[in-house]
Design a protein that fits this description.
The chain is mostly helical and about 400 residues long. The protein folds into two domains: about 1-185, MFS general substrate transporter like domains (Growth Hormone, Chain: A, Up-down Bundle), CATH 1.20.1250; about 200-390, Growth Hormone, Chain: A, CATH 1.20.1250.20. About 80% of the residues lie in helices and about 0% in strands. It contains 18 helices and no strands. The protein has helices at about 1-30, 35-40, 45-75, 75-95, 100-115, 115-125, 130-140, 145-160, 165-185, 205-235, 240-270, 275-295, 300-310, 315-325, 330-360, 365-370, 370-380, 385-390. α11 (about 240-270) runs antiparallel to α12 (about 275-295), α12 (about 275-295) packs antiparallel against α17 and α14 packs antiparallel against α15.
Amino acid sequence: MREEQGGRQRWVVLAVGMAAMTAGCAFQFGLPYLIPALRDGGLSLGQAGLLAACPTVGLVLTLTAWGAAADRWGERWVLASGLGVGGLVLLGATAVRGTVGLGVCFLLAGAAGASAHASSGRLILGWFPARERGLAMGLRQTSLPLGVALAALLLPPLAVHGRAVALAVLGALSVGAALLVVLFVRDPARPEAGTGAGAGNPYRTLVLWRLHGAATLLVVPQFTVSVFAFVFLVDERGWSPSTAGPVLACVQVAGAGARLAAGRWSDVAGSRTGPMRRLALTASAVLAVLAVGAFAHSVAATAALMAAGVVTVSTNGLSFTAVAEYAGGAWAGRALGVHTTVQNAVAAGVAPTAGALIGAAGYGWAYAVVVAFPLVAALVTPVRVEAASRPTPPRGGRIAPESGLR
């Protein structure tokens, strides 16, 4: 009975953590859907774009600090306080008129809401045993596309009634998520000092650095494909915008499914990095087909683009799970903060760099260049370290919650 109650509790924690991260992502990554309303308020496209980027800047600046706070004081109050403060800042932003003032509000709200990225992943490490953790982290990773989808649905119609209304709803979502965390989330049992994967500084070996590096390399093809997929279909393949949009929305849904499937695969295989390496090699092969199709102006490029949109996002949950498991309970928050910070910093530079390459040489060369990134990621991924050091499961196949990559 106690085990059954614990099983229900951890899925409740996951559901609330996903809701919290979805609410945070709706603002942090969905603000571009307010750009038309910001321009109607007298801002130039450049000014509106800069405001839309402010939450991501705040996110990058504070992720590691929030992770360290979760390691020290626990996930529940760190997650709730960050989302609550971020929501209150957004509610206050409804009364701000100047561009600079709005930018400061968006920066501060993004910095506060970053707590969701570090704490929600750490909750999964503590609450879920290794046999379920890959699937749970895959579910957690779907919060980002869910948040963007929520923003796409809510913000354009709300902006018709004024920018302040849209910001008020975003703020209310964050405050509401914070209240849910306070009511329903409980911190998992913390590891005793000197035990588990968190004993000592995990950065003294190369394993975490290799995990960060491999996952960051995989960000490059992911964003190269996703950022320019719509424009490629419209400009190069002659699709209408009304057709390309829904099709790419289906690709996003399929990508979320691929994250879940990869997580479940890793649970069954007892390895995060083995499936991660195989998916990286698959992504490289698909990108090669995409590049050849783009050079030849072939219909194969369209099919390869859809496949690339799915496979390039499939490893996201695996890398987060591997990082959390190797870092252990004492370091997981900081390690996940570093992981997300590096990925977001690199992602911010992908769009302008890939856009410049496409403008100068065309889509074929851009896709051909990024073929190398998942290949290198596959080489960097520390599969042998995991295989050599994974503890042998006790009788019955159950693995202790803190076990995993070493």
